């Protein structure tokens, strides 16, 4: 089965020529971008819904409607209410306006607010993973967000026992371990495993 190409991780902002090429794919300049033949899609939610329809044999959504709704909500808490606050331009602005530590302190507050909401939302639905014992859409958003919270922003996960527990379960899965930024082909040498 042909696997679409996905630009995901490092490399943004480091090489002017590469950036110019990348902006042709996504004028906003953000990763990820999926290229599948003639199809070019930027935005992780759009990409995952496209893959959901393209490969229905590996569905990312539970069968019942309520579970699907919870997956959409959890995914969107990450991609609309947490992740945008961590982007480079925002952090740079906060640092310039408010001082050297303001960027991460502020990002941590946004993460903690979103994680508190996720803990409440998922408490009645989680199993081994966010919404049961199978990996679904919500998990694909939660895994990188929790990883970034721990490693980059040093969020204390003792406050979020459910998220901490499911993150441990993600780390047992080779597909999740292989998706870590340091394992990507364009990861700078100093970040490689
Ligand atoms: N809603 C978009 C957001 C994309 C986004 O913000 N990507 C971040 C990395 S996770 C990025 O490219 N940041 C570069 C920057 O901050 O300049 C999505 O989910 O794909």
Quick recap of the structure?
By secondary structure, the chain is mainly α. It is built from eight helices and three strands. α3 runs antiparallel to α5, α4 packs across α5 and α6 packs across α7.
Notable characteristics:
8 helices; binds glutathione; globular; 2 domains; Glutathione S-transferase Yfyf (Class Pi), Chain A, domain 2; mainly alpha; 193 residues; 52% helix; Glutathione-S-Trfase_C-like; Thioredoxin-like_sf; Glutathione-S-Trfase_C_sf; Glutaredoxin
Describe what you observe in this structure:
This protein is mainly alpha-helical. The protein folds into 2 domains: 5-57, Glutaredoxin; 61-178, Glutathione S-transferase Yfyf (Class Pi), Chain A, domain 2. It is 52% helix and 6% strand. The chain is built from 8 helices and 3 strands. It has helices at 16-25, 44-54, 65-81, 88-98, 102-122, 137-151, 161-171, 174-178; strands at 5-7, 33-36, 39-42. The chain has a 3-stranded antiparallel β-sheet with strand order 1-2-3, covered by helices on one side. β2 and β3 (39-42) form a beta hairpin. α3 (65-81) runs parallel beside α6, α4 packs across α5 (102-122) and α6 packs across α7. The longest helix is centred in the middle third of the chain and has 21 residues, at 102-122. It starts with a strand and ends in a 15-residue tail after the last helix. The relative contact order is 0.11. Bound molecules: glutathione. Glutathione is lined by residues 12, 30-32, 43-45, 79, 83, 87-89. This is Glutathione S-transferase zeta class-like isoform X3. Residues 1-59 form the GST N-terminal domain. Belongs to the GST superfamily. Zeta family. Residues 64-189 form the GST C-terminal domain.
């Amino acid at each position: 089965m042909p696997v679409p190409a996905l630009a995901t991780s490092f490399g943004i902002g480091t090489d002017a020529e590469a950036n110019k090429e990348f902006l042709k794919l996504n004028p906003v300049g953000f990763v990820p971008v999926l290229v599948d033949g003639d199809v070019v899609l930027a935005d992780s939610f759009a990409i995952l819904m496209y893959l959901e329809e393209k490969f229905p044999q590996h569905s990312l959504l539970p069968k019942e409607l309520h579970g699907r709704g919870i997956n959409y909500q959890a995914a969107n808490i990450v991609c609309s209410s947490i992740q945008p606050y961590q982007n480079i331009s925002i952090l740079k602005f906060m640092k310039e306006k408010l001082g050297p530590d303001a960027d991460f302190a502020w990002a941590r507050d946004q993460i903690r607010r979103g994680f508190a909401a996720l803990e409440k939302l998922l408490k009645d639905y989680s199993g081994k993973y966010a919404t049961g014992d199978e990996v679904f859409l919500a998990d694909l958003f939660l895994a990188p967000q929790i990883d970034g919270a721990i490693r980059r922003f040093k969020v204390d996960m003792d406050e979020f026992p459910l998220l901490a527990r499911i993150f441990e379960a993600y780390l047992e899965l080779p597909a999740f371990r292989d998706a870590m930024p340091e394992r990507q082909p364009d990861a700078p040498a100093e970040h490689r495993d």
